[in-house]
Amino acid sequence: MTDSKPAAIFLKDYQVPDFLIDRTQLKFELDAERTRVTANLSVRRNPESENNAADLVLHGQEMQLEAISIDGIALDKSRYRVSENDLTVSNVADVFELQTQVLINPVANTSLEGLYKSRTMYCTQCEAEGFRKITYYLDRPDVQSEFTTTVIGNKAEFPVLLSNGNAIDRGEMDDGRHYAVWHDPFRKPAYLFALVAGDLAVVEDKFTTCSGRSVDLQIFVETKDLDKCDHAMQSLKNAMRWDEEVYGREYDLDIYMIVAVDDFNMGAMENKGLNIFNTSCVLAKPETTTDVGFQRVEAVVAHEYFHNWSGNRVTCRDWFQLSLKEGFTVFRDAEFSADLNSRTVKRVEDATLLRTMQFAEDGGPMAHPVQPASFIEISNFYTLTIYEKGAEVVRMIHTLLGAEQFRAGSDLYFERHDGQAATIDDFVLAMEDASGEDLGQFKRWYSQAGTPTVVVEDDYNEDSGEYRIRFKQIQPDTPDMTAEQKQPLLIPVALGLLGDAGHLPLQLKDEEINADTEDNTHCVLRLKEAEQEFVFSNVRERPVPALFRGFSAPVKWRYNYSRDDLQRLAVAEEDGFSRWDAVQQLAVAVIDDAIKAFNNDRDTSVDQRLVQAYRTLLSDRAIDKAMVALMLQLPSEAYLSELADEVDVEAIHVARQSVKKQLAEALKFELSECFAENNTQQQYQPVAEQIAQRSLRNSCLSYLLCLDDELGISLARQQYREANNMTDTMAALTGVVNSDHPRAGELAKELLADFYQQWQQEALVVNQWLMTQATCSLPGGLERVKRLMEHPAFDINNPNKVRSLIGAFCNNNPINFHDTSGAGYEFLADQIIALNESNPQIASRLITPLTKWRKYNQQRQQLMRSALQRIESTEDLSKDVYEVVSKSL
User: Fold this and answer.
1) Could you say which of 165, 198, 231 is where a domain stops?
2) How far is CA 533 from CA 470, 521, 565, in A?
3) Looking at the DSSP assignment, which residues form a beta bridge with residue 527?
4) Are 546 and 498 within 8 A, CB to CB?
5) Which of 542, 16, 55, 64 lies closest to 318, judged by CA?
6) Residues 881, 809 share a domain
7) pLDDT tens-place string over residues 495-528
């Protein structure tokens, strides 16, 4: 690290821009090493700025300035100054036309920000601050401009030339080049700019909007991928219709385009009218894509489309408001997925992600509020807190207001701020004004970091029939604020009381206590105080409380459930999330028993209440099969680690495996019967019913592979050979690769070789092959990963490959990554240092496992800190990596 450390940027220091750019005209003359970008900017001083004599300061990096003029007159060198990060022009008028010409080198741009080459095509990624690598500009989201873009390239090499908006002109040139001119009539910030040029095939369709307009839909891919676009196209049309019906939002341009790119740091990008997608988020067909892959494509296509309003038409004023667009849009895409598939399954999946990954982020050195107060590098704040926790905050507003008033609030928000750069305060105010609700206390969710814990106690008076339930909010210390500095949050607690014969009617004794009653058996309590009590009258028996039904708030909660209580909730509770959560809590308790037994060098048997709960699930044909599959999944090692004060890597791994094996032995008959019942051959469709069936069958197979006999191995081999879809193929392959059965090793080698031979030309499938081996928990994990890094299938410059191999190993293979030698930590440090030079964004995102060093024993703490210190001492450390490492230490 150089002596000059990057400085933090603070929300409190926000000032409006001194200048605005009303119109932006760009011309790109594409060349691999010398792309010329000519920019004509219509600039004026911002009347809201108090600095009416300011010089014009434009952002710019990694470019060569060839020419600069104002109003057609070339500037003398005394009028401007070029530095590493900006261009300053002095003595400018209040209104003027600025023209610049710069040269950039797309092929050398390994950071994949700005304009770069992805194999045979040019593409851009400008969010958050990539546009400043394209030309000198006011690269901030509160500067919005009307863009006209001319793209010029060799016609034979790049027959397709795309940019934002509607195509207004095309033509050929005398030297074998051609051009396309695109105009976007909607003002946008530079981060929403997009350009693509390549030899691409296209799948086309049309959509008729609610007002009767016809919109052309196009998905551009390499020719070999034309047969993988149908699902994305249908998902897009479903999303467009859903947004009209649920939010009243109609698409506004004549064309909507998606381009699939293999080298991409993110999942996808919502550039106005021209979405650029990672291939993993748009390409899908049964032979190459799992059910999870199909669902991801559906969700990401919807997410980027929904951004057209919640992100594009209304954008964010500054990057501290990032969750304004991302949290709101994640909530919207989650509701879309829930409406099209299983609402309960979607809710459980989202809650699992929060509890396992986001809660860990909230408890680590990078913890930050949904609206951060400061950052060094904005790319580090594209986090689960901004996205998933931000979505949960929006969901809580929806819960508190109800669907009708929430829709009124969103309508008012879009109406007020269409074409503007808005803030989180603007969003909440629209919700308040539309509903009449005071959300002042609720807004603390945006400014206070960390995951609250709610401690719940209760008592029941049999004589009076009164049931008292008391809640206590405990706020955690976070890097920015101590618990004592934090104030109580407004927390919606969805509640039901379960009796012997089902849910009990609810009647609050004190009518002034604020409760939104949904019906007579369920309500939403508003927890506002640090400690608060609610009293229910006429409760005819001591109930078991179903707390935070539907995961009504992103909190941890503690209540002294007995295992009998959990078993009752697992069987009789109506809310799918609460039922799943009861099984999870029961399984956690059983695994804790096994951890204690492991540490005391003794054997233990699985609590029969868990066995019986699983037996009931396997025999109940009325339950959604997807929910049964979810409830059969034991808590992950990552979740068990999150629950632990000090992570005991070996004990968690061995105990979980032991419990799973004992369950398999106890339930062999039921698991075999369930597997056979759902092992039907049918033409593959990524629809909810079939996905549920495959999920349940493969959950059973994963248990059967734990048995010492030949049954699991035999079933897995047969399934691999006969599967007509990638879901079943990968389930069989993954199961065999992770099996410690004596015959599994040779079979795993055979299947892995066969799989690669069959799919080596399909990059996304090969990524699954890499990930399967990277996450294998059998001994020798690091050596396997190092060998695979030398394999022709791996490319350190491709983010998808890095995530599939290095990221998967370090994040999802704890027993091997956390080897007591510290070799895993040294390996990760090596990769981060190497990637720091070529792709700082990917490098910084790989650091996460090392940031959790405080959760481990002293030996591992020292080894992990040593790895972090080695990274920190690297010369020319990027802002991305420096911020994460320095905060971690």
Assistant:
1) 198
2) 4, 19, 22
3) 491
4) yes
5) 16
6) yes
7) 999 999 899 999 998 754 444 445 689 999 999 9
Alpha carbon distance 835, 847 (integer Å)? 11
Domain holding 274: CATH number? 3.30.2010.30
- Domain CATH code at residue 14: 2.60.40.1730
Within 10 angstroms of residue 17's Cβ, the number of other Cβ atoms is: 17
Question: What is the Cα–Cα distance from 473 to 527, expressed in whole angstroms?
Answer: 9
Q: Which residues contact 789 (CB under 8 A, 6 or more apart)?
A: 796, 805, 806
Q: Give the number of other Cβ atoms within 10 Å of residue 461's Cβ.
A: 12
- Same domain as 825, residue 694: yes
Closest CA to 249 of 292, 198, 302: 302
pLDDT at residue number 681: 82
Determine if residue 184 is left, alpha or beta; phi over 0 gives left, psi from -120 to 50 gives alpha, anything else beta. beta
Evaluate whether residue 775 is within a structural domain: yes
Query: For residue 301, what is the DSSP state?
Result: H
Q: pTM for the full model?
A: 0.97
Same domain, 679 and 732: yes
Residue 790 has φ and ψ, to the nearest 5°, of: -90, -5
Mean pLDDT over 357-376 rounds to 97
Measured distance CA(131)–CA(429) in Å, rounded: 32
Among candidate residues 530, 559, 588, the one where a domain is terminated? 559
* 292 and 242 fall within a common domain: yes
Pairing assessment for the beta strands 145-154 and 177-188 based on DSSP bridges? antiparallel
Q: Which of 780, 768, 773, 672 lies closest to 729 in space, CA to CA?
A: 768
CATH of residue 872: 1.25.50.10
The Cβ of residue 410 has, within 10 Å, a number of other Cβ atoms equal to 25
pLDDT tens digits along 268-300: 999 999 999 999 999 999 999 999 999 999 999
Catalytic residues: 304
Residues 348, 580 contacting (CB under 8 angstroms): yes
List the domain range (segments joined by +) for residue 46: 1-198
Q: What angle do CA 882, 888, 889 make, to 5 degrees?
A: 95
Domain-embedded: residue 770: yes
Cα 620 off chain centre by: 34
Residue 565 domain flag: no
Would 564 be classed as within a structural domain? no
CA distance 250 to 243: 7
